[in-house]
Specification:
- By secondary structure, the protein is α+β, with helices and mostly antiparallel strands.
- It has a domain of 147 residues: Up-down Bundle (Butyryl-CoA Dehydrogenase, subunit A, domain 3), CATH 1.20.140.150.
- The protein is built from five helices and five strands.
- Strand 2 and strand 3 form a beta hairpin.
- Helix 1 runs antiparallel to helix 4 and helix 3 runs antiparallel to helix 4.
- It starts with a helix and ends in a 7-residue tail after the last helix.
Length: 219
C-alpha cells in the first residue's frame, strides 16, 4: 500500500504535467526556423505552433498570425490539436478526482470510495499522458523527416522547439503519476484478497436461551 506521502508526490508530478500540457498546447514554439541574412538587422526567427505562427525580428518586433482554416492544415497538426486538448481535459479531471481520493484529504467518504477515486484519477492521468505523447512524437517525426529530405530547401527546414520538449516532459510526469495512483489502489485490493478480514460468528439469542434452560425441568 502506497503511503500518503507517495500519493502527494504523484499529485505534485501531475500538477506539473497539467501546467506543462497546457503550456505546450498554447505556445507557438513547436518548430523553429532561424533565417539569418547578410545583415543582422534582417535576422528573423520563425516559430510555428498548433494555433498560430509567429515571427520575431532582431529589431524586437514580434508578430503572430492565427491559423483560422482547419481543413488547410496538415493531418498531423489537426491530430495534435485534438489529442492535446483531450490531454488537458483528462489531466484536469484527474486532478479533481485524485484530490477527493487521496489519503491526506478528508473528502471522498470511506476507504473503498477513496480507493476507487484514486484509481479513476490514475486512469485519467495515464490516458492524458498517452494523448500528450502521441502528438509530440508524430510532430517530431514530421520535423525530422522534412529536415533530412534533400528535396526541401534549407530555408524551409525547421527544428523542434521548446513546446515539443515541454510536451514530452509533461506526458512523462502524467504517466508516472497515473501509474503511482493505480498501483497504490491495486496493492491495497490485493492485500485485502490475500488477507481477508476475520469473521466472528456469534450464537443467536434463541440458541443461548435454549442452552440456558433445560426442558427436562418442565417435564
Amino acid at each position: 500500500m502506497a503511503s500518503a506521502s507517495l500519493q502527494f508526490f504523484a499529485f505534485i508530478l501531475a500538477l506539473f504535467g497539467v501546467f506543462g500540457d497546457i503550456a505546450a498546447t498554447l505556445l507557438p514554439h513547436w518548430k523553429i526556423n532561424a533565417d539569418v541574412g547578410s545583415n543582422i538587422i534582417t535576422a528573423i526567427t520563425q516559430m510555428q505552433g498548433l494555433w498560430m505562427d509567429c515571427t520575431w525580428y532582431s529589431t524586437g518586433m514580434f508578430s503572430c498570425t492565427l491559423k483560422y482554416s482547419i481543413l488547410s492544415l496538415p493531418v498531423y497538426i489537426q491530430a495534435a490539436r485534438t489529442t492535446m486538448v483531450l490531454s488537458c481535459i483528462l489531466s484536469a479531471f484527474g486532478i479533481c478526482i485524485t484530490t477527493v481520493g487521496m489519503k491526506c484529504t478528508r473528502l471522498g467518504g470511506d476507504t473503498d470510495s477513496k480507493n476507487n477515486a484514486c484509481f479513476a484519477g490514475g486512469i485519467c492521468f495515464i490516458l492524458a499522458g498517452l494523448f500528450g505523447l502521441v502528438p509530440t512524437c508524430w510532430y517530431t517525426r514530421e520535423i525530422i523527416s522534412n529536415f533530412l529530405d534533400q528535396t526541401i530547401p534549407e530555408s524551409s527546414k525547421h527544428e523542434p522547439g521548446g513546446a515539443v520538449y515541454t510536451g514530452f516532459i509533461s506526458a512523462g510526469f502524467l504517466l508516472i503519476a497515473g501509474v503511482i495512483f493505480c498501483s497504490s489502489c491495486f496493492k491495497r485490493q490485493q492485500g485485502a484478497w490475500i488477507y481477508p478480514p476475520k469473521q466472528h460468528h456469534f450464537p443467536s439469542t434463541e440458541q443461548e436461551s435454549n442452552a440456558g434452560y433445560s426442558l427436562k425441568d418442565y417435564v
